[in-house]
Structure formats: C-alpha cells, structure tokens
Prior knowledge:
The complex is a heterodimer.
Chain A: H1 2-30, H2 36-40, H3 48-57, H4 68-72, H5 76-79, H6 83-92, H7 106-141, H8 146-160, H9 163-174, H10 194-231, H11 234-241, H12 246-276, H13 278-283, H14 289-299, H15 302-330, H16 333-336
Chain B: H1 2-20, E1 60-65, H2 81-87, E2 92-94, E3 100-102, E4 105-110, E5 116-121, H3 135-146, E6 160-167, E7 170-175, H4 182-186, H5 195-198, H6 203-207, E8 221-227, E9 231-236, E10 249-254, H7 258-266, E11 272-273, H8 278-286, E12 290-295, E13 299-305, H9 320-329, H10 332-339, E14 345-346, H11 370-379, E15 403-406, H12 409-424, E16 431-434, H13 436-441, E17 451-457, H14 462-467, H15 471-475, H16 486-497, H17 501-518, E18 521-526, E19 529-534, E20 538-539, H18 551-554, E21 559-560
Parallel strand pairs in B: 1-10, 1-11, 15-16, 15-17
Antiparallel strand pairs in B: 2-3, 4-5, 5-7, 6-7, 8-9, 9-10, 11-19, 12-19, 13-17, 13-18, 14-18, 20-21
Amino acid sequence: MQRSDYLIRRMFFALGTLVVVIVFNFFLFRILPGDPIKAIVRSPRLTREARERLRVDFGLDKPVFFDAERLTEGDVVGAFDTQFTAYVRALLHGNLGISFRSRRDVAEVLAERVWRTVVLVAGAETLALVFGMALGLASAWRRGTRLETTILLWALFSWGLPNFFLGIILLLLARGHLPVGGMVVPGLKPEAGLAYWADVGRHLILPTITMAIVYTSSYVLIMRSSVVEVLSEDYILTAKAKGLNTFQILRDHALKNAMLPMATMVALNLGYTVGGAIQVETVFSWPGIGRLMYDAVQLRDYPILQGTFLLLAVSVVVANLLADILYSVLDPRVKAE
Amino acid sequence: MKRFGFLVSLFVILGLLLSGCAAPTPAPTPVSEEPTPVPEEPTPVPEEPTPTEAPAEPVTLRVGSTTIWDAMNPATGWENYTLRYWFHDGLIEWAELTSFELGLAESWEVSDDGLVWTFKIREGVTFHDGTPADAEAVAWSLNFLMEGMIGPLELYVTGFEEVVALDPTTVQITLSEPTALMLTARLHYAWILPRSVWEGMTYDDIMEFEDPASVIGTGPYKLVEYVEDEYMIVEANEDYYRGKPVIDRIVIQEYATEDAVVQALLAGEVDVMWGVPNTAVQPLQEAENVEVVIMDSLNLADLVINSHVDGTQPESLNDPAVRLAMEYAIDKQEIIDVAYAGYGEIATSILPPAFGDWVNPDLVPVPFDLDEGNRILEEAGYLDSDGDGIREDADGNPLEYRLYAEDLATEARVLEIISDGLADIGISAPPTLWDGDALYDLLEPDWDFDMILWGWGWDPDPDFAVYCFTCDSIGDYLSDVGYCNEEYDALYAEQGMTMDEEARRELIWEAQAILFEDRPYINLHYQPGIQAWRSDRWTFTDFSGGDLLNKWSLVRDPQPVQ
C-alpha cells in the first residue's frame, strides 16, 4: 500500500517533469540568437523568393507563441496558429518533425542513431562498473596501505581528466592500429555478417575505453567511501566475531549494503550518458546521438534539437524513476519516509 | 585473505594497463572478442579476396573530410558544389579556378542584340539512368529551373525568358535583356536535370525528395551510397562525355574534427585531406608519404565596417579618413604569420590575384604604418584632448568601436592584432567574440555593430563579388556591410550588360577603386586553399582548379602510384 503510493507519487512527478521539458524544449532553442534559415542556408545563391518559400516550408513564417494582433481582432483560433501549437500538435501525434538540414524524419534519424550511442555507453558502463567496484572494494579493504593511495590517486587523476583530452591522447597512441574514427569502413554492410560486426567492434574500442576510464574513477570513489562506511558498522564486527572469512564478509555484508549508493549512481549515469557521449562521439567521429546534437546546435536545426533533447529528458526522467523504484526495493526504509 | 589480495592486485594491474597505455592491444572488451584481421590498408570491399585472374580491383580514392554535404537533393542541399558538380553538368563548365569550358554544349552563337543565344548540344550524351540528354532534355531542364523548382539553381537562369529546342541538337535561349554573364556566371550551375526523374513533381514533392535519384545527371560520377555523418561512395560513369574517369571509385569519409582527418591521413586511412588547417601544414609536410599543396583560391578575409545609413555605428566611423587610418594601423603580415602560420597574401582589392586581369592593378597597397595612421587622424581633427590615450572627434565623442568576430581560435588571434594596432593610433576597439549565427543577426534589420571580422569565397566571375556591395544586395541578405552607393550601383548594372570584355574590365576596376576609396571593408588577406594527399598512393599534378577534387582535373589528372 505504502509502496504503491510512493510509486504513484514518483510517476506523477516524472510525468510533470516531462511536460515542463516539452514546453521548455521549444522555447530554449528559439531564444538562441540566430535565424535557422540563415544558418542552414548560408548559400548566397538563394534568391529572395526561394528564401521566403523555405521559411513557409519550415513553418517559420508563423509567430512563435501567439499572434497578439489577431487576438485583438477577435480571431482567437488564428491567434494560436503558431509554431508552438504546431509543435505540440505534432508531438501529440508522435511526430517529431523533419530535420531542417537533411530533410529526414527526426524520429527515423533518432531511431537510427540511438542504438549506436547505447552500445557505446553500455560497453563503457559495464567495464567501468566491473573495474570501479573491484578497485573501490580493494581500496576500502586495504585502507591506509600503498594500494589504496595508488588507486585513489589514479581515480582522482582520471576523474579530473576531460574525456575529449583523454580521447585525443588514446587516438594518437593507437594510430595505425585502430581506426581513427567512424563506425564502420565505408561500404561495409550488416549483410556482411561477422566481418561487419568485427569492424564495428574495432571502431568501438577506443571510444569505449575512453568513456570507461572516466566513469571507472567515479565508481571507485563512491564504492570506496560506502564500503569504508559499512566496514565501520557493528554488524561487520559481529561477522568477524562469528569467524567469517574476509571474502564472506565482503560479499555478504559489506558489498550488499554498499550497493545502495552504487545503484543510484548507475541509474543516474545511464540517464545522463545518452547526452554525455557528445565529446567522445565527436573525438572519435562516432555517428551517435551526441554528434547529431552537436551538429544540430551549430545549424540551428530546431526539429533535431527538440527531438534529441526530448530523448535526453525522457531518459533522465526514466532513469530517475528507476533509481527511485530500485531504491525502494533495495532499502525498505525509503518508502516509509 | 591471500587469494583475495591476489585477485585485487590483478584487477589493479588490469585497470592501470587500461588507463596508462592506450593499448594497441587493449584488454578484452565485450565487443571485440573475435580476432579481427588488421589489414595494413583497410580496403573498402573486404568481401572476396580477389584471385589473380579476377578483374582488376577498382581504382579507389579515399577522401577524408569534416563535411560531405547537407542533403542530396539539389533543391534542398546548399553545401558543397564541388561534390554536386561530380554528378551534374551544365552547358558551360566551370573548369579551372576562373576559367570556363564548353560542357554539354559543343558551340554557341549569340545574336547581335545579345538577346538570343543558340547552343549546339553534344550528341550521344545520356543521363546516369540511360535517358538521352539531347536538346529536348536540355530545354526541358532549363525550363524546369526557370519555374523556380530548384531554389539554389534559380539564380543561374536569371533573365531567361524562353528556352526551346529547335532540333535534337540545338537549344535556343532568349533573354529579357543582354548580359555579359551568360558564359561565366549563369550556365555553369544551371544543371541539366533528367526529365525522367523530376517531371510531374510538385514543389512539395521536390522539397521532400531525399532520394539518390535526385543526383542523377550526366556527370563523371554516379552516387552509389550516401550515409549521413559517415560516408559517401561514388563510382565512375563509364559513358561520361569526356571519357571514363581515371578513378573508378571515390569514397569520402566524414570525420567530426579536422584533427581526426589529419590522423587518418597520417595513418593512411584516407588518401586525400580536403581542407587542411594552416596549423597542420607543417606537421603534414614533415610527415612521410604526405604531400601538401597550397593552391590559389577566390577567398577574401576582411574587416567589415558598418556602412549602413541606419546603422548604429558612431558618426566618426563613417569618415573615410578614420577608415584609412585604421588600415594603416593593421599589421596584415602579422595576422598572416601569427594566426595563419604564414600562409596567405596581403590583400588590397576585394578580388584576390586569382582573378587575374579583373584585379585593378592601380590600387596602391596601404602599408602597416602607425605614424601615418596617427598623422591622418591628427590632420582630420581627431585629437586626444583629455589625455586618456583615446582620440575624440570634434564633438568630444571618443573613438571607441565595437570589434566583433566569430568565436574561433584563429579569429580571436586576428582580433587581438587588430585591436592592438588600433590602440596604437588612439582608437579603442576591445575585441568581442560571438556565436557565428548571432553575428548574422546583427545585420538585418538593425545593423547594430561597428566592425566584424569576416570573409568570402567569391564566385569565378567578378560579378558576384561586385554585386555584394550594391544596394540590392542588402535586401537579398547578401550584403554584410550595408554599403549603398548609387554611382556604384550604376557601374554594377553597366558591367553586367557590357559585352566587350575590355570595356567591362574597366568598369570592374572602377568598382574596386570606389570600394577602395570608401572602404566598406578593410581587406586583410587572401587565404590559399590547402590540401594534402598520400604521395605513396597517388600522384597529383594539376592544381589549376584550386581543389584536388575539382571535377575538371579530377577526371584526368590523379594517377595511382605503381
């Protein structure tokens, strides 16, 4: 009973956030200086008529929010025939619009791109989790030793390393052994089977390692501090007194309790990483969501920007919701609050 | 206890390995389990290893670039005409940097009044889809462009009144008024598009037509595949009217950054780097098996001085004396040396030297001379009466200007040099960097700026460059300076109708002289086109097009090594 209350509250909150995001999303890009027609069509070859036709075509001839003039004339419906209502109406129909630049359907573009980012992020997260937990646990258990100092120093160092910088260094080091960028050798198709996937894998190595290194450090730090905290609890002492060996204590008592903050961290990270891959995708020319967003900002491609930001918002909100739910499962005290 | 300690140290070592060295052989990641063969030169078609008796491997040129284009469709894509030109031909072709050759037309005649142009069309040319590109097809296509269906190409049929096919090899174009631009600023981008693809489409259909069929033309290359943000593959058109191109296949791979392209070239993943940043020239020149070429271009880098009548610039900035003094105070060579690694040429006219005879030879370059700058301002009555180091005009307004540029590293350096120079003649112009698009917003309708660092890549005929300073160009969103001068406009109109080249040249020279006098721009420098290629794989010898991928030279010149 209590838990379902808690969940319902959380879901309403998530839904509310999304509505705010949808509205915010629209205005965010329109208060940016710069005219998309001018930004996209830098071509001096365009005649005045062609430019105006494009404006109509993109729906940019309409007022942004509402037409005050028509409202005073009593034309209430006409006053709201605006870019904003068109955007909301299309969104309710599940239509994310058409890219100003490539003229492709935004949903289609996103669908094509999103798995690439997911593969990259999932690989990096998995690596980071494994190494992060292991190193965190080790440094907590060997507190005060040279091992801990080494791990901590390295974690703090790599945590502070901008991932694009790290990426460039790795790229230089691996030049000639691994591809400089892209997702696959031009012309190779999924129909080629193993050869295709092997090539994609080769292209994935550097970006995955780059992201993993930076994530690892944050997991190390969190893992270490929570295990240190748990190890000072009385029940660990009890466990020791019961004669359990180190491995059992760590596995059955320390790790389980220390997993709480980790779970939250992972869930939150998953939400953010869809967007967090921008730098890595740019350094390694990985054609995912991050690079799409980067290009779209430069070109004022509103529909693509709205689409990617909506996707980001949804993933962050869903990840948060998951974290909340997970938390209530892992720690019964949460729902009581 | 012991066992666990061992495990931990194993992890630590693994982790350090991962972080420390960028591992040519990285720790196993979930995706790279299959032992992948690592070929020295990744060949684009790894499917069948060709045995000796199989047909020869296609000659493939691999190009690395930070951009391919925006959209395939010539109606919705505006970028990269070098590439688009591979697929499409005009009656006249833009061959070298500023020269033109006959394209689909074999010969031409013009009536005495300059209104009726008759073109003989090459026989036997076909589109990539096999349909004939005869006079009938040419006439249909030009009429299609005249309807405004392909926005970016409409400009190139300006003034066309009627186009008809007289017989299967003759097309007649009737103009509304005579033009001197027919052969150099019209037909080269009035591409002949196939009726089989475009007929019957409405404007809306065309705007949504993102299909490989949209690049069917008569050009030397056919599109095989284009994947946005990744790559483009084209293959030779065996039936190209100038003969089958040397290169069978061209692959353009898109990288997100210039640095990545440089690395790809050094690693041998690409053969040509399209657009080398000046800072990368030296490292590339020192690299093995890489050749760098510095080519003429039609680029101008300039300092725009707000000249719009309703602009918000201070009154003193409209004074030609102030503008001249500022030009004396700008160390153009320093700009080239510091911000452009020494590559570039000091500018005087709006037209770079590649324009040849069109460049007015009588313009006297303004040298870097702070004393002269100070003297001019002194003489014009701008004195520093309050001793704060900044001069004031007669009304006591200090010479303080807003100096803007786009927020790029190079631009920032240039702005510093300009600002320092101006400070030395008592003008305060602190540099401010802006988002590129925000800069455009400063133009129409408010003209709210004083000076902006900007540039142009001109069209091959000087007409376009000269047009960008007319009053009309303001309404066309083309002017970035707001300059408007009736005498100049008359000159522009006249040159466009002057059929005699000698006479037209005089007019173009005069236009340059007026601009040099009124100084809407301070012309800073001309940037060359810089490209690089792998000399162990290719030999390039013809750089006349200002671009290794220029259609005219590309189909003949590059030869694979061995």
